[in-house]
Amino acid sequence: MTGFPTKDFVALVPVAILTAGAIVLLLSEVFLVSGRRGYQAILTVAFAAAAGIAAAALPASGPVFGRQATADGFSVFVTVVVCAGLALSALVGAGWLEARNAERGEFYALALFGAAGMSLLGMASDFLVGFIGIETMSLATYALAAYLRRGKRPAEAAFKYLVLGAVSSSLFLYGSALLYGASGSTLFSDLSKGHGSALLLAGLGLVAAGVAFKVAAVPFHTWTPDVYEGAPTPVTAFMAAGVKTAAFALLARIFLAAESGPAAQASAFGGIIAALAVLTMIFGNLLALPQRSVKRMLAYSSIAHAGYLLIGVVSAGAAGAREKALSGVLFYLAVYSATAIGAFAIVGFLERRARGDEEPMDPWDLQRFAGLAARRPGLAFAMAVFLLSLAGIPPTAGFLGKLYIFQAAIGAELYGLAVLGILTSVLGAYYYLRVVVYMYMRPPEGEAEGLRSPSMAVAVVAAVAVVVLLGIVADPVVRLAQAAGLL
Amino acid sequence: MNLLTVVTFLPLLGAVGLALLPRDEAGQHRVVALSVSIVTFLLSLGLWFGFDAAPGAPEFQFEQNVPWVRSIGIGYHVGLDGVALLLVMLTTVLGPVVVLSAWKAVQERVKEFMIALLVLETAMIGTFAALDLVLFYVFWELILVPMYLLIGVWGSQNRLYATVKFFIYTFAASVLMLLAILYVYFHDGGTFDYVEARRTLEVTPTAARFLFLAFALAFAVKVPMFPLHTWLPDAHTEAPTAGSVILAGVLLKMGTFGFFRYAMPLFPEAALEYRTLIAVLAVIGILYGALMSFVQADMKRLVAYSSVSHLGFVMLGLMALSAEGLTGGVYQMLNHGISTGALFLLVGILYERRHTRLISEYGGLAKQVPWIATAFVVVTLSSIGLPGTNGFVGEFLILSGTWLSRIASSGWFAGVAALGVILGAVYMLVLVEKVFFGPLENAHNRHLPDLSVREGFVLAPMIALIVVMGLLPQPFLSPAKPAVDRLVQRFQAAEQRLGKGPQVGTQSTSFATRVLLPPGAPAIPVAPAPEGH
């Protein structure tokens, strides 16, 4: 060991920028002179942009910190998606919180801390680093979920998230300990050297369960609808985009490491993930069907999308399909992040506000969307674009994402999963279109129009642009995803 | 710039332009939409006159092939064979007609209506023009969105049910086709290009069967074939007139075109295997549609069920796998687009006057509105296939092509289908009689205005086509000929590979073609010409 480990610290620059941003935002509250806080969101966007650009521009360091983390195309892609999600969510948060007179530097600081954890998860190639990433991300999001506790629902959501999140973290940690016992190392890459198949399998199972909590795979999804519904809408958007992306990045690296091990272990782990995919697609879609609350419907839909992403992860296990599957997962995550943030932003525009401490009964009811096309044509159009993309209908980016994932699945000869996935996506078309029916085909309800916020509008326009452009001129981003898929 | 690409995307460009216009200028929106669709039609005439139907001409013309999403292997590859050309022409002719037909009928959200129509036109032309499997799928699915809005926003009472049913039904049927396309990608050397795939696709017979079924399911729902037709009567009845015209005129053809272009040539062996089943379903559809038409009280529903019957003829013609049958099937696609489109226009014209579609509300209109009655009778005659109209040419070719084909018990298929022709004549003539003849009893019908000049312009092209295509079929048959011949050759090659004896082509020298074609004209089934590429 000679000299200063420049390479290691270069790899950490994006994480450092995000953390520094969080500290700046925290201090901004201390040194606040006037009551105006509009600059905080802009500052957050600037830090997110700086971190994203730094990740993309700096040379990839490869394995760092004794192979415990890896800064490669994959981690860069994850970081960029997370930073973009952070920037969009911050814009949504600015308008949403301002309307509730609750904009504070802490909100952005927590989001930046969370993003730092997510970015770290993108690089993790060691169970300890993974655990640190999970905890950094989760502690920030627990606090964010509890950020605005007006009424019972948010408090319940935050508490539920904290308790179940802690359980999942401990599952992950215990699994890591068992794997350490089996392989004598916490590195992902040493999984293949493990002895004692029972210990290995138990460890892998626990780790898978821990991560499955984070990606909201059935049957570890039960927290998702309540938390997504109860958390402040911008936080929900950030969770749907960032937490999902980071957790899938971690899962993909662990999965590939497990797949390179002995055949029995590989097939067992592959089987676990495939079973999770099947359950997640079926139940995520079925449970979304009866929802009348659009926010809750989107929460279930995020579960369903986790199912499709799991197909991509399983496909990465097949020898010839690995690159395609990984880049498919990454592309899908990028598209889903933009779409979900956009859709939740629209929900944020329209949700019924609490009067005082009294909680409204159905703040996100479908009825809020009735006749939206006549009242706010721009919002209705944007929402329609997001919903079509979620349903996977061309020419939106959601279609290309699905095409990419299923192409990987067919390439990996996982025909059963592909057929199941595509058939359950038809259910999705039904519940997404129901919102379109309300927006375009039902008379408006004589009610308030919802928020008007320039910063949220910017976020929505950006998200629409991403969803439409990635559907039509996807090539550059797909190339990046392909480069990133060469793990 | 490639002319085909221009024709494809001009309506979309018009839609984008419309979106930028102020919201309250309904008159402007109509004029812009009409101009765009007329210019599209005029440009498409360049395709019509520029198309080379000689046997040695390239199979696909006006071709353009550039990468689209290169990294996934998706290309923007478009081009027309004769059949696609005819269907593109049908689409561009109907474009201005539907815009004009909605001039007065649509008064609310005119801008969005016109945008939906123009987007739909681009999607339809694109579906016929695409030569890349994913590009085709993109256009195919893109159609759902504007059509869904057309029915759901501007439809009649029960529109929400109808439009959701339409969307889910067709979407569910199409998604398996996407998987089949992806499977093809991995078995043709890694390309989504149709021409390449057709040349190099290698799959096991079992896989080919599943792939054929996946494609066929998507197309059969769109056609719609019995028993997958149940979305159609609802969608047709609830859609606004313009929507019904497009639905009947072009959308259903996408299903039959899909069989002709994709399901049959990509998997000929599997198609031969399922041919009898499909032909049986087609014949059931012919009879079922006709019988259901008998009992309808609603004019639009009646015409909708008659579509099931007519499209059954098209499918029967395709499954005959003889040159006449295939040619007849193609011709009948055009006929149905024109005559059923015109019927929906006429029903719409009556509806605008009386705001009811119930047959019992009418009666004895002929004296009151002689021009409407005349047009209705002409269209009816075309629909039932009277000699001298386009319908006769198509039905005759299909029936004789089926009779002479090598499909098992071909005589039965042709005979039972011929029964459908008779039934068709009966229910259509009964409709005409109930609506236009007899005593004029309903007082509401006493002061109906006759055709306006605008409506005259709407119907004139349809009637003209009915007569011209009835008397002079050759210009419309000849572009289809190379495509039909190539398909027959593909099937002959497949039948040799299977080695189970001849199954395609005709049993004897074709009586039909000799009767139909003037002396000196080339007979329709010619000696196999070398394939174009």
Overview of the structural elements:
The complex is a heterodimer of chains A (487) and B (533). Chain A is mostly helical. Chain A contains 19 helices and two strands. Chain B is mostly helical. Helices cover 72% and strands 3% of the residues of chain B. Chain B contains 22 helices and two strands. Chain B is globular and about 70 Å long. At the A-B interface, helix 16, helix 17 and helix 19 of A face strand 1, helix 5, helix 6 and helix 7 of B.
Features:
heterodimer; A: mainly alpha; two-stranded antiparallel ribbon; 2 strands; B: 533 residues; mainly alpha; globular; disordered C terminus
Write a brief caption for the model.
Chain A has helices at 6-11, 13-30, 38-57, 73-99, 105-123, 127-145, 152-183, 197-215, 223-230, 233-259, 263-288, 294-315, 322-350, 372-375, 377-391, 397-411, 415-441, 454-472, 475-484; strands at residues 62-64, 69-71. Chain A is an all-alpha fold. Chain A has a two-stranded antiparallel ribbon.
Give Rg of chain A in angstroms.
Answer: 21 Å
Spatial ordering of strands, largest sheet of chain B: 1-2
Order of helices and strands of chain B: HHEEHHHHHHHHHHHHHHHHHHHH
Q: What's the number of extended β-strand segments of chain B? A: 2
Low-confidence stretches of chain B: 523-533
Please state roughly what percent of the residues of chain B sit in beta strands, choosing from under 5%, 5-15%, 15-25%, 25-35%, 35-45% or over 45%.
under 5%
Largest interface: A-B, 33 and 34 residues
Share of residues in helices of chain A: over 70%
Structural class of chain B: mainly alpha
The SSE order of chain A reads: HHHEEHHHHHHHHHHHHHHHH
Total number of beta strands of chain A = 2
Average pLDDT score of chain B: 88
What overall geometry of chain B do the principal axes of the alpha carbons give?
Answer: globular
N-C termini distance of chain B? 23 Å
Structural classification of chain A: mainly alpha
Shape of chain A: globular
Strand content of chain A: under 5%
Q: What is the number of helices of chain B?
A: 22
What is the count of helical runs of chain A?
19
Which residues of chain A form runs of ≥5 with pLDDT under 50? Answer: none
